[in-house]
Design a protein that fits this description.
Length: 322
């Protein structure tokens, strides 16, 4: 079918209005693109002249006034690099967020850069520098809640991407650093359950056990329940991930817990023994024999006490059972 415009159709006010609108819109976009390009070129020259803050004003103008221009994405990248150079991490992250959510074709690179910023603030990333801009000053100290929110934004931007999945793990780390240990442990448990084959799954499980271990260390000497919780968590991790690179650390922590338990049981046994309370002492010697048979076998004196305790009647228990 052949389409043509008759002289009558061209005289139609509606059609003429539409054509005028399209022509004006195209002209406006062309002018906007031209203005944006000029501002961008000025900004680049200011960077070369060693005036990044002046350049930033130009790039921010482009990002604010010329959002539809093709130069906007380039301006946002330059703004991110300058903010990072100046140690202004929050506006740097926001520039990346606009690139990830508003600029087609820039998501993957911007998403990865968001992760680098958040990891650096968490203390787990290397300081990034641009080849033409050396870092002018260190990053500002950021409220832990802001770092937590950064990881939440990264997850929201790409929940099923590799970066988004990793962000779940580091969100848990950020929660722990902010003192939200229960939430951190729950997040690590969720990660290990939801992503069991991910390379960070064993790290997440280890962090669960390590949080329990650190809780016990903080209350050491008066925390049998925390000690038992730490021992169970560490033993579970070692059994589930025998080949993990965290295994040696977990085993060392478990040894620390068990040595403390053995020392406490032996101290209590000797305390009651010194007070002439053989029945109470026997309770703790029996527990030592049940929980630490390898120590009993190696210590002849202790073995005699444990064997003697086994002969004691088990009624009329005195003292707490550990």
């Amino acid at each position: 079918m052949r389409l043509s415009f008759s002289s009558h159709s061209l005289r139609s006010p509606g059609l003429l209005g539409l054509l005028c609108f399209l022509l004006m819109a195209g002209a406006i976009c062309a002018v906007e693109d031209e203005n944006a390009v000029r501002l961008y070129q000025r900004g680049v020259k200011l960077i070369a002249d060693g005036e990044p803050e002046e350049a930033l004003e130009r790039f921010n103008t482009i990002a604010t006034k010329y959002r539809r221009s093709e130069t906007c994405a380039q301006a946002l990248w330059e703004a991110y690099r300058i903010h990072e150079h100046l140690g202004d991490d929050l506006p740097a992250f926001e520039a990346l967020n606009r690139l990830a959510t508003e600029q087609p074709g820039h998501f993957e690179k911007a998403h990865a850069a968001q992760m680098r910023v958040a990891l650096r603030l968490l203390g787990r990333g290397k300081e990034a520098t641009r080849r033409t801009l050396e870092a002018q000053r260190p990053s500002q100290k950021v409220d832990p809640e802001i770092i937590i929110e950064m990881f939440r934004v990264i997850i929201k931007n790409g929940p099923q991407s590799e970066i988004g999945i990793q962000a779940h793990y580091y969100l848990a780390m950020a929660l722990e650093q902010a003192g939200q240990k229960r939430e951190a442990r729950e997040m690590h448990e969720d990660f290990a359950e939801n992503f069991p084959k991910h390379e960070l799954a064993d790290d997440a499980s280890y962090q669960c056990a390590y949080i329990a271990y650190k809780d016990w260390k903080l209350m050491r000497g008066d925390s049998p329940h925390q000690r038992e919780a730490a021992a169970v968590s560490l033993a579970w991790f070692i059994a589930r991930y025998p080949e993990s690179d965290k295994g040696a650390q977990a085993r060392a922590c478990l040894v620390d817990v068990r040595v403390a338990e053995r020392r406490e049981l032996l101290s209590l046994a000797r305390y009651y023994e010194g007070r002439g309370n053989a029945k109470a002492a026997a309770i703790y010697y029996q527990q030592i024999g049940e929980k630490f048979p390898e120590i009993v076998v190696a210590d002849e004196d202790l073995r005699g006490k444990v064997e003697g305790a086994s002969a004691e009647p088990k009624d009329d228990v005195v003292g707490p059972t550990r």
